[in-house]
Amino acid sequence: MKIRSDYAILFIFVCMLLISCSNTTPSKKPGAKKTSPISITDTSTVKSCCLKAPGRFETKTGTNQTIIEGKLSHQGMVYIKGGTFQMGGDNNQAAPDEYPKHKVTVDGFWIDQTEVTNGQFAEFVKATGYITTAELKPDWEELKKQLPPGTQKPDESTLVPASLVFAAPDHEVNLSDYSQWWAWKEGACWNHPQGKGSDISGKDNYPVVHVSWYDAQAYCKWAGKRLPTEAEWEFASRGGLENKIYSWGNEKVDEGEPKANSWQGNFPNQNTLRDHYYGASPVKSFKPNGYGLYDISGNVWEWCADLYHSEYYKLISKIANLRNPKGPDKSYDPDEPYAVKRVLRGGSFLCNDRYCSGYRNARRMKSTEDTSMEHTGFRCVSDN
Ligand SMILES: [Ca+2]
Ligand SMILES: [Ca+2]
Question: Is the pLDDT of residue 75 over 70?
Fold first, then answer.
């Protein structure tokens, strides 16, 4: 079981890096405006620093590439007229961070009808020469400044450009242990999604994955757009329906016709393929929601602009006439209290009711800004 053992070591390493990265911010964070109407202070009373979600680590060079703001095109976008809605959990699957449900107003905005595709991301890379976070070798001299004093250098073999790839076990596993189905894969990145030797030939219309929050921000800037706020994303996902669990209504995800690319069967070792897709599907493979948005539920998780704070709704819900909230000004996840995290929404091909039910309108996910994974992508919005 040498491979498993290596993974365990690596995950511990990544965990250490996540913790260590908490107080360090890259010199440039594209678009990282923090204009929250409230201030949330750190409530670091949580003792545990268990690794609850795999993450990568910050690489300064990955965030310093200059991207010139591009000219906006509304091709492939739809305009959503603003409105007021109830934001937050709709059923007993909701996690504590989805409560309380609270009234939010968002102004109108344009939004991509689909997740950003490989073809679109390839155009961006071709035009800018951009290098994604996953393609950069970690710099130990930089990393160790962010780790507890005396931390030993990990094996050189782990300090390589890499990303997190789904690796299904052949047996049931403890769902609290992510390392059972995530592998740190050398060479995995947006155009080599399974690592060296893999490619995206014929997959121009699949969502781009293995992109960090920085990568998503860079693309948005190049496209003259931005990432959606969490409130905009949820308003868009609801598709004009009120207080429904899913973007299509309340019919359970595995009843009736397949409505989103998710995981059917026993996650993560058995997939019945009821929706015909084991991994990501081409965008527009499932019906759009009421606003004409495809795969807003499922397929790949989508980065939002907002920082993640587990207590955010509790605090912000006390504000009357809440309009265009932009998230807290400080990140806090009790699972990893020292990590700076951003919100992700919508679930992925790995979600099912046994596990995360990520395809619910209100489900909140979070990850460090430098994390890239096989099930994570994004879509963009613009104000005009
Ligand atoms: Ca599927
Ligand atoms: Ca999606």
Answer: yes
Has residue 44 been placed in a domain?
A: no
Q: Summarize pLDDT for 231-244 with one digit per residue, the tens.
A: 999 999 999 999 99
| 179 is a domain residue | no
Q: Does residue 361 form part of some domain?
A: yes
Assigned domain for 149 exists: no
Domain CATH for 291: 3.90.1580.10
Residue ranges near ligand 1 (ion) with Cβ within 5 Å: 261, 275, 277, 349
Would you give the DSSP letter of residue 245? S
The span from the CA of 33 to the CA of 342, in Å, is 13
In angstroms, what is the C-alpha Rg of the chain?
19
| Digit-coded pLDDT (tens) for 113-133 | 999 999 999 999 999 999 999
> 68: CA distance to ligand 1 center in Å?
37
Q: How many domains does the chain have?
A: 1
In the predicted structure, residue 61 carries a pLDDT above the cut 80 = no
How many A from CA of 346 to the centre of ligand 2?
5
Instruction: Quote the ligand 2 centre to 376 CA distance (angstroms).
Output: 8
pTM: 0.86
Provide the b/e sequence for 129-167 (b: ≥16 CB within 10 Å). ebbbbbbbebeeeebbebbeeeeeebeeebeebbbbbbb
- First-to-last CA distance in the chain? 55
Nearest C-alpha neighbor of 158 from the set 367, 370, 52, 12: 12
